[in-house]
Design goal:
The structure is a homodimer of 315-residue chains. Chain A is of the alpha/beta class and 315 residues long. Helix content of chain A is 40%, strand content 23%.
Amino acid sequence: MYYLGVDLGGTNIAIGIVDKDGKILNKASVSTPSNGEYTDVVTAMIDLSKELISDNGLELSDFEAVGIGCPGSIDYQKGSVAYSNNLHFNDAPITAEFQKHWNIPVIIENDANAAAYGEYIVNGNNADVFVAITLGTGVGGGVIIDGKIFRGANGAGAELGHSVLVHNGLPCTCGRKGCWEAYAAATALVKQTKVAIEKHPESLMSQYAKERGKVNGRTAFDAAKKGDAAANEVVKKYIEYVADGIVNMVNIFQPNKVVIGGGISNEGEYLLAPIREYVKKYDYNKLFTPVEIDAATLLNDAGIIGAALAAKNFK
Amino acid sequence: MYYLGVDLGGTNIAIGIVDKDGKILNKASVSTPSNGEYTDVVTAMIDLSKELISDNGLELSDFEAVGIGCPGSIDYQKGSVAYSNNLHFNDAPITAEFQKHWNIPVIIENDANAAAYGEYIVNGNNADVFVAITLGTGVGGGVIIDGKIFRGANGAGAELGHSVLVHNGLPCTCGRKGCWEAYAAATALVKQTKVAIEKHPESLMSQYAKERGKVNGRTAFDAAKKGDAAANEVVKKYIEYVADGIVNMVNIFQPNKVVIGGGISNEGEYLLAPIREYVKKYDYNKLFTPVEIDAATLLNDAGIIGAALAAKNFK
């Protein structure tokens, strides 16, 4: 039996055929219809699903459930997207619409939760408490407790990036001031890098920015690794923001494991080693088993795999 | 059937006879032996328990379980206190020692967790997710998820007060800088009040401090209620610290209900109304049922009741 995992984003719909162990057999993607009509989005999903399934010599009856991971606020009672900025959805009954075309168990899950669940199953060693952090446009969070996706009482929980780390600090997109996200997201690192480039036009970081025609999440890391002092300051401070927020989550959740995903996690040990050191120093728990901190492993497939496995386990 | 609830503190041992609904039939207390010998502490507990039980015309056999709430780090596997600063305990096997004297199911629980559980049962309306915050010497936290006390993977979780709210802010007893506790504890309010009194010797707040011979958690609130501008500034800023941290917990947990305990919670609506307003404004969730925020109701009995009810439900 197989499971279909759908990573429904504002730009693309990516769909994968996933086995019971979270392995992707094959995947395909298509542009997301951008007119905000959920019926069109579901039609595109159905068409791509059927094509992918038949291209792989399978039948609809080989599938036990479908999981759809989706950005925005999910109404889990109704199986609908209550609101999604990226998809221009307002109260979109995705699962019911999907089932009009294909009568199969369908679950819908917030994309950050789905990705966290994928990491948990594949990379979580049966943790009692597991936290996934994604450093991307924002700081996404997902928490798995006793094998279940933790969503709070109303489905909107685990917004870990929207906890204030710097009281009265930088404005966040959510309306608060000083959210962790405003300091630790990849986009925040880009801003921090740009400020430092202004101040240090002589730096290697500045040279990289010119050569590459842009500043991204790698600019400061790349220059720091070559010994650029200004870049090193940026990276050190950025890692401190990331790590200070992770200690918060550790003191709150005391998870067995935290995984860090998003493009920045490609920095590997250069990012992880100082985070581990910081967390070890400031973790409130000094007596019991300490948290393990690792890079996420599923990368761009986390959404597909997590949605499929959530469908398998919670359909 | 009855349950015995023990609130084991550094100064006093308070014990109550509790019924299945969390009502205290009667209670008594005694000084905690201060020599750091857990055997002496357990003997004192046993003596007081037997006295209380016989004074109320009951027998040991009328009791189904005993719950002990205790400050410090609990080893739930062993039923021991791994470390408690207040009690001078290191690896103290309290439950086993207790059962040498009285062969009955005994559970041990961190005191903040026990108090939160008591509030949850009595005041939590069967919340799926319930958070209790105590504004005292520190900022204590307790989280109940699906009827279970959330302790993290290793038992040391839910240290909500030790999440940084002010990055690189005031030093906290835990070794971090800028913990919520360093700004929102009752002791933090006292410090904030003292600083304001220095700056505003003409204020009513300053006069109250002189008349009463001390500054405490009520000084600024009392003066603010009489229209003292300097006191009002202190109270406003203090409430902002409390509320900003509560929004963090709301965005993370999206609980059905948050209760606020500790002496400060006696300020009632004067404290709660601005917190509710702040949380409503900054809660990430605008679509689904919002969190309810209330004062704790069990006050000093929360520990006894929570420990007894935890014994009843988790023995």
